[in-house]
Every structure is written in C-alpha cells, then in structure tokens.
Design goal:
The complex is a heterodimer of chains A (339) and B (265). Chain A has 14 helices and no strands. Chain A is mostly helical and 339 residues long. Chain A has a single domain, classed as ABC transporter involved in vitamin B12 uptake, BtuC, CATH 1.10.3470. In chain A, helix 4 packs across helix 11. Chain B is of the alpha/beta class. Chain B has one domain: P-loop containing nucleotide triphosphate hydrolases (Rossmann fold, 3-Layer(aba) Sandwich), CATH 3.40.50. Helix content of chain B is 39%, strand content 22%. Chain B has 11 helices and 10 strands. A 10-stranded mixed beta sheet of chain B has the order 5-4-1-2-10-9-3-8-7-6, with helices on both faces. In chain B, strand 1 and strand 2 form a beta hairpin. Chain B is globular, with a radius of gyration of 19 Å. Chains A and B meet through helix 9 and helix 10 of A and helix 3 and strand 6 of B.
Amino acid sequence: MEQKRRIRYTISYLVLVLGIVLFFVLNVCIGSVKISVSDMLACLTGKDVTDSVSAIILNIRLPRAVAVFILGGALSLAGYLLQTFFHNPIAGPFVLGISSGAKMCVALLMVFLLGHSIKINSASLILAAFIGSMISMGFVLLMTRKIHSMSMLVVCGVMIGYICSAITEIIITFASDSDIVNLHNWSRGSFSGMTWDNVKVMAIAVTTTFVVVFLLSKQLDAYTLGDSYAGNMGVNVRFLRVMIVILSGILSACIVAFAGPISFVGVAAPHLIKKLFGTIKPILMIPACFLGGSLFCLFCDLLARNLFAPSELNISTVTAIFGAPVVIVILANAKKEKR
Amino acid sequence: MSDSREEKMADYYFQCEKLSVGYNGAAVVSRIDLGIEKGKILTLIGPNGAGKSTVLKSIARQLSVIEGSVFLDGKNLFEMSAKEVSTKMAVLLTERIKSEMMTCGDIVSTGRYPYTGYFGVLGEADKKAVKDAMELVKVGDLAERDFSAISDGQRQRVMLARAIAQEPEIIILDEPTSFLDIRHKLEFLSVLEKMRDEKNVTVIMSMHELDLAGRISDRILCLKGEYADRFGTSEEVMEKDYIRQLFGIDDEMKEFADARGIQLF
C-alpha cells in the first residue's frame, strides 16, 4: 500500500513538472509573433537569433512566463494556507475578499503617487497590498467569531470583496485621466507588462515565504486535526495561526501588487492537486500546490493572450471559467458528506 | 507540612489542588481537590452542564484555569513545556475532525507527532507504533480507509488508536462512549482497561453511562455544577439516593422509574 502511494506521488509530481515545462515553452513560443522552439532554445543558450525575436523572448514573453509561474504558485499556496487555517476547502484569497482589500490599498497608493508624480516601486506596492490584505483578513477573522458555517463565511468574504472593489472604483473615478487606463487594466487582473525588475522582487518575496511555509509543514499537519489536538501535540497554536495569516497575506499581496486580483486559482488549484495526490499531507501539498497553481495559471494565461488575439482577455476571465466550476463541485460534494 | 505534601505528591500521579475552572474568569467548577495513583481510571459523572468538559479541557491545557494547580508526576502541569506534556498526555475530545481526505492511518500517525523529527517524517519505530495501536483497538483493516467515510464507532476507535500511538502516560477522554452502540461501548472500555492493566496508563474521562462508569472506574468524581460534590471509589460514591440527588431526580421521576423497573446504574 505504501509503495502504491509513493508511486502515485511520484507520478503526480512528474505530471506537474512536465506540464509546467510544456506550458512554459508554449507561453514563450505562441503569440502574435510565432517563435519556433529551436529559436527559443537558441536564444536562451545565447546563440545568434534576430534582434526582434530575442527582444520578444527576453523582454516580453520570458519575464511574463516566469512571473506567471511565480505568482500562480503563490496564489495557489495562499489558497492552501487559508483552507488549512479555516478548515474550509473553499477558502481562498479572492473568495474571502483578501485580494480585493489588497487591490483597494494598491489603487490608493497608485493614485496618490501618480498624483504627486512619484515613481512607483515594487516594494511599496507589495507593502500597500499587504496592508490591504491584512485589513480584509482582519474583517474575515472578526466574522469567524460569529459565523461558523463555511458557506456563510465565504458569502461574507465575497461581500467584503465587493465593498473593497466599490471603494477601488471610487478611487479610480477620482483619479486623473492618464492614470485610469493603467489602473483599469490592472484592477481586473493581468500578467501583461512584467519586467525583469518585477520578477526579481516577486521571486525574492515568494521564495522566502515558500521556504517559511515549508518549514512549518509539520505544525500545519498537526493543525489539520483542529486547534485542540494540535495544542495537545505540542504545537504553539497561536503562533502558528499568526504565521499563517501573515504568510498568506504576503503571498496574496505579491499577486495583487503585480498582477491585480486573480479569481478562483487559490481554491481550484489546491483542490485539484489534493484530488490528484489523494492526500492533504502538508509536506507533499506545499510544493505540489505551488506547482499546480503555476501550471493552472500558465495554461490560463496562454488562453488569455491567444484566444482572441490580438486583443487580450483579463486573466480572471479565464481563471473564473475553469476555476468556478471546481468551487461548485466542492460545494456540492460538501453537502453530500454532511448528509 | 511540606514533608507531608511531598509524600502525597509521591503517591499520586495526578493531583488537583484547589482547582477552579471556567470561562473568561467566571468559575464553572470551583476548588477541586483530588489525587489518583498511576494506572487508575478516574471518571467524571454529573448532570449536563455540571462542568465535566470544562474540567477535562482545563487539565488537558486547552483552557486556562482560574485558580489552583494540577500536578502530573510531581510536576506542575501548567509550568511544563508543551513538548513535555505532549509525550505524557493524549486527549480524545468531542471536537469533530473536519479535514477531508485523510485516511485512518494518517489520523493515527498524527499521534506520533511529538516523537518525529523537524519535518514529521515517520521512522520505522513510528510506523510500528501506529500499526500496533491500530491493531490494539481492532482498526488495523481501516488503515487505508477515508476517515470521513467510516462509522461513528469506528471513528472513535481510530481516535483512541491515535491517542495510544502517542504513547501517553495519561489519557484524557471527553464522553468517549456517548455515540457508540452497546457493543462498541464495551469494546472501547475494554481497550482502556487493557491500557491501564498492561501499560499502567492513567485514564481520566467523563461518562453518562453510570452503570458502566461504576464498574470500570477506580475513582469517581461527581460534579454538581459549581463544585465537585464527591470523590471516591465507586462503592463509596454510587449510592442510589445520592445519585438521585446528584442528577436531581425528583419523587415523580423516581416513581416512574421504579414502576418500570428502570435501574439508574
């Protein structure tokens, strides 16, 4: 039996890694300008290719694909953490309104900085997004004192999300014309316009968070049984809860700061990964959810860019089409289990 | 004075001194004094709302106590590290496990948490302890089954296996038999007795089944809301008139019971 499980885990990881490699290559090669795989390899290994091709690869598609990989993984991991935290399979940064809170603060900062003609840097965006996500998370946590049903909590999260989005809309309405185009695209979620500088910052933030989450995997494992059992096993539950809130906040903040709010990946990807592996063991799930989110987003971004080219879809449009049905399936099954 | 206290501590494995427990500073049960030796079964009985769960939660360190102290093996329980307590005390609570997609084997494995390394990977000894614990409570064949897909009786036994895998010296159980049918109740209690007799494990639990409690317990603590009313062996405690008074059974109810030959315990 144990052998069987091990084989399943290995195959699942292989599928994820191969899928990511495949969609990564597709993302670099497919677009308004088609690039052959051999050209891509030539460019990446430093051989001579035409300037335009190398510019497209190195300055546009590659940073974008890397950003999708990092942020997609971060999104899924944030979802996984929140699901563990609330013992609730449909918790996620978007569903609980955390992304929208982050969006609100980033919009405020952008409008303020643009109004004063100050250049925006990545770190300040992340910080603003982090503050925003903590505000929303604070509200959600206050709600959990009164609301214990998982679906009601999500409804509250969605409401918080709407309030934050409404405030964001107001901010955007009052922003000067030149800012609006930029803000409008971003506030709906998009991976376009990623630079290597962006990628560098998000890589550092997300990698650090990932490592810390992974180091907590044993505590998270005990926590899956609930507070009391975790406490009995010697886990400092209060510390762990604070850590989960902060870590999922940082991850959500990174995503919103760079790509805007992206819907449903945080719920759908971890769920599909849990089903694929047939376990919820954190030590397996933390890397697997990251990879799963990356794969999901690489796939969705490929569609977003190319489905109706030359115009580009919002990433959330695509993720919602594939992610929302997963949420519905989870809800339907949850009802069955409770009888 | 200090001498006699040390002597007492040496005798008792588990001891409460003037223990008051409750929520948000308001006491539910006040000034409990008791001591039991190692390898004994202590059962808490009393009407609903008398504070059985509150007492158990407090001595399992889930709830901060209002006053008083608890000594485990001569050490103040509330000054021990979480790690130390986790290798000595296992709990089985009424809290339901909400996690999906965990096999029964996974659940029992979490009992090894205090003994595994930083990433919690089970070694051979851990796997053996898990397997032995599951076989002891006769759930060995459930190892690969999904925990959410088994019956209440099986679930409770898996949770007991989890507690046993933790290799505790003392197990705290909150109404462990309440939702089991009579066969599973007996099976469950027989495992607890086995743990006591073979591994010298101390058991503290709450129960509503007075007949069973009276026969399996070495000591019984009667809680009557606000205070602990009686503490002693079942012979000392289990008197018909006393039990009637403890649970507030009035004459009308007594007549009803007597007319139909219903035994209180």
